[in-house]
Amino acid sequence: MSKIELLAPAKDLNKARIAIMYGADAVYVGGKFYSLRSRASNFELEDLKELSEFAKQYGAKVYVTVNIVFHDDDYYGIREYIRYLGKIGIDAVIISSLALIPIVRQEAPNMECHISTQLSSLNSSAVRTLKDFGADRVVLGREASMDQIEQISRKASVPLEVFIHGGMCSNYSGRCTLSNRMTLRDANRGGCAHSCRWKYRLYDGEELISDPDCLLSMSSKDLRASAYIERMINCNVASLKIEGRMKSEYYIGQVVKTYRKMIDEIYEKGSLSEERLAYYDNELTKAENRPSDDGFLSGDCDNSKHLYGVNGAGVTHDYVAFVHGFDSKRNIAQIEVKNIFARGDKLEAFGPRTDNLSFDVEFMFDENWDSVDLANKPTQILYMRMPFAVHRGDMLRKVSRR
Ligand code: SF4
User: Which of 198, 219, 220, 299 is the most buried (most CB within 10 A)?
Assistant: First the structure.
Protein backbone atom coordinates (compact mmCIF):
# COMPACT_ATOMS: atom_id res chain seq x y z
CA MET A 1 0.00 0.00 0.00
CA SER A 2 1.56 3.31 -1.02
CA LYS A 3 1.65 6.18 1.43
CA ILE A 4 -1.10 8.76 1.18
CA GLU A 5 -0.15 11.91 -0.75
CA LEU A 6 -0.17 15.36 0.85
CA LEU A 7 -1.14 17.87 -1.83
CA ALA A 8 -0.65 21.60 -1.30
CA PRO A 9 -1.67 24.72 -3.21
CA ALA A 10 0.63 27.49 -4.40
CA LYS A 11 -0.02 30.88 -5.92
CA ASP A 12 3.52 31.43 -7.17
CA LEU A 13 6.87 29.75 -7.56
CA ASN A 14 8.12 30.82 -4.16
CA LYS A 15 5.09 29.39 -2.34
CA ALA A 16 5.31 26.18 -4.35
CA ARG A 17 8.94 25.79 -3.25
CA ILE A 18 7.90 26.43 0.38
CA ALA A 19 5.14 23.81 0.13
CA ILE A 20 7.56 21.19 -1.17
CA MET A 21 10.31 22.08 1.31
CA TYR A 22 7.80 21.90 4.20
CA GLY A 23 6.74 18.38 3.24
CA ALA A 24 4.14 18.36 0.46
CA ASP A 25 4.35 15.32 -1.83
CA ALA A 26 2.73 17.30 -4.61
CA VAL A 27 1.63 20.86 -5.39
CA TYR A 28 -1.17 22.14 -7.55
CA VAL A 29 -0.91 25.47 -9.29
CA GLY A 30 -2.81 27.46 -11.86
CA GLY A 31 -1.28 29.01 -14.92
CA LYS A 32 -2.39 32.36 -16.25
CA PHE A 33 -4.88 30.62 -18.52
CA TYR A 34 -7.71 28.12 -18.13
CA SER A 35 -7.56 28.13 -14.31
CA LEU A 36 -10.06 29.14 -11.65
CA ARG A 37 -7.48 31.37 -10.02
CA SER A 38 -6.11 32.74 -13.29
CA ARG A 39 -6.62 36.36 -12.19
CA ALA A 40 -4.32 35.79 -9.25
CA SER A 41 -1.85 33.45 -10.92
CA ASN A 42 1.78 34.43 -11.00
CA PHE A 43 2.82 31.37 -12.98
CA GLU A 44 4.20 32.26 -16.37
CA LEU A 45 4.99 29.31 -18.65
CA GLU A 46 8.68 29.57 -17.68
CA ASP A 47 7.75 29.42 -13.97
CA LEU A 48 5.84 26.20 -14.52
CA LYS A 49 8.95 24.72 -16.13
CA GLU A 50 11.15 25.89 -13.27
CA LEU A 51 8.70 24.43 -10.73
CA SER A 52 8.61 21.10 -12.55
CA GLU A 53 12.42 20.91 -12.41
CA PHE A 54 12.52 21.96 -8.73
CA ALA A 55 9.84 19.43 -7.74
CA LYS A 56 11.70 16.59 -9.42
CA GLN A 57 14.76 17.27 -7.22
CA TYR A 58 12.55 16.57 -4.20
CA GLY A 59 10.64 13.67 -5.77
CA ALA A 60 7.47 15.78 -5.65
CA LYS A 61 4.76 16.05 -8.28
CA VAL A 62 3.19 19.08 -9.95
CA TYR A 63 -0.44 19.29 -11.03
CA VAL A 64 -1.75 22.19 -13.08
CA THR A 65 -5.37 23.28 -12.89
CA VAL A 66 -7.08 23.59 -16.26
CA ASN A 67 -10.45 23.76 -14.59
CA ILE A 68 -12.43 26.65 -15.97
CA VAL A 69 -15.88 25.79 -17.29
CA PHE A 70 -15.11 26.09 -20.98
CA HIS A 71 -17.21 28.12 -23.39
CA ASP A 72 -16.44 27.63 -27.10
CA ASP A 73 -14.03 30.56 -27.34
CA ASP A 74 -12.07 29.33 -24.32
CA TYR A 75 -10.69 26.38 -26.30
CA TYR A 76 -8.45 28.67 -28.31
CA GLY A 77 -4.82 27.59 -27.74
CA ILE A 78 -5.65 24.72 -25.40
CA ARG A 79 -3.83 22.05 -27.44
CA GLU A 80 -0.58 24.03 -27.46
CA TYR A 81 -0.90 24.64 -23.72
CA ILE A 82 -1.49 20.97 -22.90
CA ARG A 83 1.39 19.96 -25.17
CA TYR A 84 3.68 22.41 -23.37
CA LEU A 85 2.66 21.10 -19.93
CA GLY A 86 3.43 17.55 -21.05
CA LYS A 87 6.77 18.59 -22.50
CA ILE A 88 8.01 20.23 -19.27
CA GLY A 89 7.08 17.16 -17.20
CA ILE A 90 3.89 18.28 -15.42
CA ASP A 91 2.43 15.14 -13.83
CA ALA A 92 -1.28 15.86 -14.17
CA VAL A 93 -3.88 18.40 -15.12
CA ILE A 94 -6.90 18.97 -12.90
CA ILE A 95 -9.88 19.35 -15.22
CA SER A 96 -13.57 20.00 -14.94
CA SER A 97 -14.43 19.35 -18.59
CA LEU A 98 -14.36 15.74 -19.77
CA ALA A 99 -13.82 17.09 -23.29
CA LEU A 100 -10.20 17.72 -22.30
CA ILE A 101 -9.44 14.02 -21.73
CA PRO A 102 -8.99 13.11 -25.42
CA ILE A 103 -6.96 16.31 -25.95
CA VAL A 104 -4.61 15.37 -23.10
CA ARG A 105 -4.30 11.80 -24.40
CA GLN A 106 -3.30 13.10 -27.84
CA GLU A 107 -1.06 16.00 -26.86
CA ALA A 108 0.53 14.79 -23.61
CA PRO A 109 0.05 11.03 -23.24
CA ASN A 110 2.21 10.83 -20.09
CA MET A 111 0.16 13.36 -18.20
CA GLU A 112 -2.70 12.22 -15.95
CA CYS A 113 -6.21 13.68 -15.93
CA HIS A 114 -7.56 14.40 -12.45
CA ILE A 115 -11.24 15.28 -12.29
CA SER A 116 -11.85 18.50 -10.36
CA THR A 117 -14.11 18.80 -7.33
CA GLN A 118 -16.28 21.04 -9.52
CA LEU A 119 -17.92 17.94 -10.93
CA SER A 120 -19.34 17.32 -7.43
CA SER A 121 -18.50 13.59 -7.54
CA LEU A 122 -20.24 12.28 -4.44
CA ASN A 123 -21.10 8.66 -5.25
CA SER A 124 -19.48 5.46 -6.51
CA SER A 125 -21.40 5.39 -9.80
CA ALA A 126 -20.16 8.87 -10.70
CA VAL A 127 -16.58 7.86 -9.85
CA ARG A 128 -16.88 4.65 -11.90
CA THR A 129 -18.30 6.54 -14.86
CA LEU A 130 -15.50 9.10 -14.72
CA LYS A 131 -12.97 6.26 -14.75
CA ASP A 132 -14.70 4.81 -17.83
CA PHE A 133 -14.30 8.21 -19.48
CA GLY A 134 -10.54 8.03 -18.83
CA ALA A 135 -10.06 9.77 -15.47
CA ASP A 136 -6.83 8.84 -13.67
CA ARG A 137 -8.01 10.31 -10.37
CA VAL A 138 -11.23 11.82 -9.03
CA VAL A 139 -11.33 14.69 -6.55
CA LEU A 140 -14.44 14.11 -4.47
CA GLY A 141 -16.88 16.93 -3.78
CA ARG A 142 -16.33 18.65 -0.44
CA GLU A 143 -19.93 17.80 0.40
CA ALA A 144 -19.22 14.08 1.07
CA SER A 145 -19.35 12.81 4.64
CA MET A 146 -16.57 10.59 5.99
CA ASP A 147 -18.93 7.59 5.92
CA GLN A 148 -19.66 8.29 2.26
CA ILE A 149 -15.95 8.68 1.48
CA GLU A 150 -15.32 5.24 3.01
CA GLN A 151 -18.19 3.77 1.03
CA ILE A 152 -17.04 5.29 -2.27
CA SER A 153 -13.45 4.28 -1.59
CA ARG A 154 -14.39 0.62 -1.05
CA LYS A 155 -15.86 0.48 -4.56
CA ALA A 156 -13.57 2.89 -6.41
CA SER A 157 -11.17 1.51 -8.98
CA VAL A 158 -9.53 4.89 -9.48
CA PRO A 159 -7.50 6.89 -6.92
CA LEU A 160 -9.52 9.39 -4.88
CA GLU A 161 -8.47 12.82 -3.68
CA VAL A 162 -10.19 14.49 -0.72
CA PHE A 163 -10.07 18.07 0.57
CA ILE A 164 -8.86 18.25 4.17
CA HIS A 165 -8.23 21.93 4.90
CA GLY A 166 -9.08 25.46 3.85
CA GLY A 167 -11.91 27.55 2.46
CA MET A 168 -15.26 26.12 1.48
CA CYS A 169 -17.81 27.41 -1.00
CA SER A 170 -21.24 28.14 0.44
CA ASN A 171 -22.59 26.46 -2.67
CA TYR A 172 -21.59 23.14 -4.15
CA SER A 173 -18.05 23.92 -5.33
CA GLY A 174 -18.15 25.63 -8.67
CA ARG A 175 -21.92 25.71 -8.92
CA CYS A 176 -22.27 29.34 -8.02
CA THR A 177 -22.97 32.50 -9.98
CA LEU A 178 -22.99 35.00 -7.10
CA SER A 179 -19.79 36.56 -8.35
CA ASN A 180 -21.02 36.66 -11.96
CA ARG A 181 -24.16 38.50 -10.94
CA MET A 182 -22.65 40.91 -8.44
CA THR A 183 -19.39 41.77 -10.17
CA LEU A 184 -19.64 40.40 -13.72
CA ARG A 185 -16.73 38.14 -12.81
CA ASP A 186 -17.29 34.52 -13.77
CA ALA A 187 -16.42 32.27 -10.83
CA ASN A 188 -16.08 29.34 -13.18
CA ARG A 189 -13.67 31.13 -15.48
CA GLY A 190 -11.18 32.29 -12.88
CA GLY A 191 -12.90 35.41 -11.61
CA CYS A 192 -14.62 34.58 -8.31
CA ALA A 193 -14.88 37.79 -6.26
CA HIS A 194 -15.80 35.79 -3.13
CA SER A 195 -19.12 37.60 -2.93
CA CYS A 196 -20.30 35.08 -0.33
CA ARG A 197 -17.66 36.43 2.05
CA TRP A 198 -18.73 40.06 1.76
CA LYS A 199 -20.53 41.63 4.68
CA TYR A 200 -24.23 42.33 4.21
CA ARG A 201 -27.14 44.03 5.96
CA LEU A 202 -30.62 42.63 5.46
CA TYR A 203 -33.39 44.98 4.27
CA ASP A 204 -37.09 44.39 3.69
CA GLY A 205 -37.67 47.19 1.18
CA GLU A 206 -36.27 50.28 2.91
CA GLU A 207 -36.46 48.75 6.36
CA LEU A 208 -33.31 47.34 7.91
CA ILE A 209 -34.33 44.05 9.49
CA SER A 210 -30.93 42.66 10.54
CA ASP A 211 -29.08 43.74 13.67
CA PRO A 212 -27.62 47.21 12.81
CA ASP A 213 -24.46 46.36 14.76
CA CYS A 214 -23.91 43.07 12.98
CA LEU A 215 -22.84 42.58 9.37
CA LEU A 216 -23.88 39.26 7.86
CA SER A 217 -21.83 37.00 5.66
CA MET A 218 -23.03 34.05 3.58
CA SER A 219 -19.73 32.28 3.96
CA SER A 220 -19.04 28.80 5.36
CA LYS A 221 -16.51 28.21 8.07
CA ASP A 222 -13.22 26.84 6.74
CA LEU A 223 -12.62 23.11 6.62
CA ARG A 224 -10.31 21.37 9.06
CA ALA A 225 -10.27 17.58 8.72
CA SER A 226 -7.49 16.80 11.20
CA ALA A 227 -9.71 14.42 13.20
CA TYR A 228 -10.43 12.36 10.06
CA ILE A 229 -6.92 11.86 8.63
CA GLU A 230 -6.54 8.43 10.23
CA ARG A 231 -9.79 7.19 8.70
CA MET A 232 -8.81 8.61 5.31
CA ILE A 233 -5.51 6.75 5.45
CA ASN A 234 -7.23 3.54 6.53
CA CYS A 235 -9.77 3.65 3.71
CA ASN A 236 -7.08 4.10 1.04
CA VAL A 237 -7.79 7.64 -0.08
CA ALA A 238 -4.88 8.43 -2.43
CA SER A 239 -4.40 12.12 -1.77
CA LEU A 240 -5.20 14.70 0.93
CA LYS A 241 -5.66 18.15 -0.51
CA ILE A 242 -5.16 21.51 1.18
CA GLU A 243 -7.13 24.42 -0.29
CA GLY A 244 -5.67 27.92 -0.52
CA ARG A 245 -4.01 29.05 -3.72
CA MET A 246 -4.44 32.65 -2.52
CA LYS A 247 -2.79 32.01 0.85
CA SER A 248 0.50 33.33 2.22
CA GLU A 249 3.79 31.46 2.45
CA TYR A 250 3.32 31.37 6.22
CA TYR A 251 -0.05 29.63 5.89
CA ILE A 252 1.36 27.16 3.37
CA GLY A 253 4.42 26.37 5.50
CA GLN A 254 2.54 25.95 8.76
CA VAL A 255 -0.40 23.94 7.42
CA VAL A 256 1.74 21.67 5.23
CA LYS A 257 4.21 21.00 8.02
CA THR A 258 1.45 20.20 10.51
CA TYR A 259 -0.31 17.69 8.25
CA ARG A 260 3.06 16.22 7.15
CA LYS A 261 3.96 15.46 10.75
CA MET A 262 0.48 14.21 11.56
CA ILE A 263 0.44 11.81 8.60
CA ASP A 264 3.95 10.54 9.35
CA GLU A 265 3.04 9.96 13.00
CA ILE A 266 -0.06 7.96 12.05
CA TYR A 267 2.02 5.74 9.75
CA GLU A 268 4.71 5.34 12.38
CA LYS A 269 2.49 4.66 15.43
CA GLY A 270 -0.62 3.26 13.76
CA SER A 271 -2.88 5.93 15.27
CA LEU A 272 -3.00 9.37 16.85
CA SER A 273 -3.78 9.90 20.54
CA GLU A 274 -6.23 12.62 21.60
CA GLU A 275 -3.37 14.65 23.07
CA ARG A 276 -1.43 14.53 19.81
CA LEU A 277 -4.52 15.49 17.80
CA ALA A 278 -5.07 18.46 20.15
CA TYR A 279 -1.42 19.44 19.64
CA TYR A 280 -1.78 19.37 15.85
CA ASP A 281 -5.09 21.27 16.00
CA ASN A 282 -3.36 23.96 18.01
CA GLU A 283 -0.62 24.13 15.38
CA LEU A 284 -3.22 24.61 12.63
CA THR A 285 -4.81 27.43 14.64
CA LYS A 286 -1.53 29.34 14.37
CA ALA A 287 -2.23 29.86 10.67
CA GLU A 288 -6.00 30.20 10.56
CA ASN A 289 -7.71 33.54 10.07
CA ARG A 290 -11.31 32.27 10.04
CA PRO A 291 -13.14 29.87 12.32
CA SER A 292 -12.89 26.30 11.08
CA ASP A 293 -14.96 23.17 11.33
CA ASP A 294 -15.19 19.64 9.95
CA GLY A 295 -17.54 20.76 7.15
CA PHE A 296 -19.63 17.91 5.76
CA LEU A 297 -17.36 15.16 7.10
CA SER A 298 -19.41 14.52 10.25
CA GLY A 299 -22.50 14.15 8.08
CA ASP A 300 -24.37 17.04 9.68
CA CYS A 301 -23.85 20.33 7.94
CA ASP A 302 -26.12 22.65 9.91
CA ASN A 303 -26.19 26.36 10.78
CA SER A 304 -23.23 26.02 13.12
CA LYS A 305 -20.99 25.50 10.08
CA HIS A 306 -21.82 28.90 8.63
CA LEU A 307 -20.10 32.13 9.55
CA TYR A 308 -23.15 34.41 9.38
CA GLY A 309 -22.27 37.40 11.54
CA VAL A 310 -19.02 35.97 12.83
CA ASN A 311 -15.96 37.81 11.67
CA GLY A 312 -12.57 36.21 11.32
CA ALA A 313 -11.30 34.34 14.37
CA GLY A 314 -7.98 36.14 14.01
CA VAL A 315 -4.73 34.28 13.73
CA THR A 316 -3.13 33.39 17.03
CA HIS A 317 0.36 34.11 15.66
CA ASP A 318 1.81 36.79 13.41
CA TYR A 319 4.40 35.86 10.83
CA VAL A 320 7.24 38.35 11.37
CA ALA A 321 10.30 37.19 9.41
CA PHE A 322 11.64 34.75 6.84
CA VAL A 323 15.12 33.24 7.35
CA HIS A 324 17.37 33.59 4.31
CA GLY A 325 20.51 32.13 5.85
CA PHE A 326 22.44 31.33 9.01
CA ASP A 327 26.08 31.96 9.88
CA SER A 328 26.85 29.10 12.25
CA LYS A 329 30.23 30.54 13.29
CA ARG A 330 28.66 33.74 14.67
CA ASN A 331 25.14 32.41 15.32
CA ILE A 332 23.69 35.17 13.17
CA ALA A 333 20.58 34.68 11.05
CA GLN A 334 19.92 36.76 7.95
CA ILE A 335 16.20 37.52 7.99
CA GLU A 336 13.66 39.36 5.85
CA VAL A 337 11.12 41.40 7.82
CA LYS A 338 7.50 40.47 7.11
CA ASN A 339 5.68 42.12 10.02
CA ILE A 340 6.45 44.42 12.92
CA PHE A 341 8.40 43.14 15.93
CA ALA A 342 10.90 44.57 18.37
CA ARG A 343 13.89 43.84 20.51
CA GLY A 344 12.65 42.01 23.64
CA ASP A 345 9.79 40.25 21.83
CA LYS A 346 9.47 36.51 22.26
CA LEU A 347 9.51 34.77 18.87
CA GLU A 348 9.11 31.19 17.74
CA ALA A 349 11.15 29.69 14.90
CA PHE A 350 9.78 26.87 12.81
CA GLY A 351 10.66 25.26 9.54
CA PRO A 352 11.16 21.98 7.72
CA ARG A 353 13.94 21.04 10.20
CA THR A 354 13.16 23.47 13.04
CA ASP A 355 10.45 22.59 15.54
CA ASN A 356 8.84 25.54 17.33
CA LEU A 357 11.90 26.90 19.14
CA SER A 358 11.19 29.99 21.29
CA PHE A 359 13.64 32.78 21.97
CA ASP A 360 13.79 36.44 22.99
CA VAL A 361 15.01 38.92 20.40
CA GLU A 362 18.23 40.37 21.80
CA PHE A 363 20.39 41.87 19.08
CA MET A 364 19.43 42.93 15.57
CA PHE A 365 21.50 44.82 13.03
CA ASP A 366 20.87 46.31 9.63
CA GLU A 367 23.14 45.85 6.60
CA ASN A 368 25.46 48.62 7.87
CA TRP A 369 25.72 46.80 11.20
CA ASP A 370 23.81 49.56 12.94
CA SER A 371 21.78 48.27 15.86
CA VAL A 372 18.01 47.98 15.25
CA ASP A 373 15.40 48.02 18.04
CA LEU A 374 12.25 47.95 15.94
CA ALA A 375 11.80 45.86 12.79
CA ASN A 376 9.00 47.67 10.99
CA LYS A 377 10.02 47.85 7.34
CA PRO A 378 8.58 44.95 5.33
CA THR A 379 11.18 43.22 3.07
CA GLN A 380 14.08 44.87 4.96
CA ILE A 381 17.03 42.51 5.45
CA LEU A 382 18.26 42.35 9.04
CA TYR A 383 20.74 40.23 10.96
CA MET A 384 19.75 38.66 14.25
CA ARG A 385 21.76 36.92 16.98
CA MET A 386 20.22 33.47 17.62
CA PRO A 387 20.52 31.17 20.65
CA PHE A 388 20.22 28.13 18.35
CA ALA A 389 20.78 27.24 14.71
CA VAL A 390 18.09 28.04 12.17
CA HIS A 391 18.01 27.17 8.47
CA ARG A 392 17.30 28.88 5.19
CA GLY A 393 13.55 28.64 4.64
CA ASP A 394 12.62 28.77 8.34
CA MET A 395 10.06 31.32 9.51
CA LEU A 396 9.76 33.41 12.68
CA ARG A 397 6.45 34.25 14.33
CA LYS A 398 5.18 35.85 17.52
CA VAL A 399 2.00 35.47 19.54
CA SER A 400 -0.56 37.83 18.10
CA ARG A 401 -1.84 40.70 20.27
CA ARG A 402 -5.38 40.21 18.93
S1 SF4 B 1 -18.85 33.45 -4.30
FE2 SF4 B 1 -18.39 32.09 -2.60
S3 SF4 B 1 -19.70 30.29 -2.87
FE4 SF4 B 1 -19.62 31.39 -4.84
S5 SF4 B 1 -17.93 30.40 -5.99
FE6 SF4 B 1 -17.08 32.19 -4.93
S7 SF4 B 1 -16.29 31.34 -2.96
FE8 SF4 B 1 -17.73 29.81 -3.82
Answer: 220
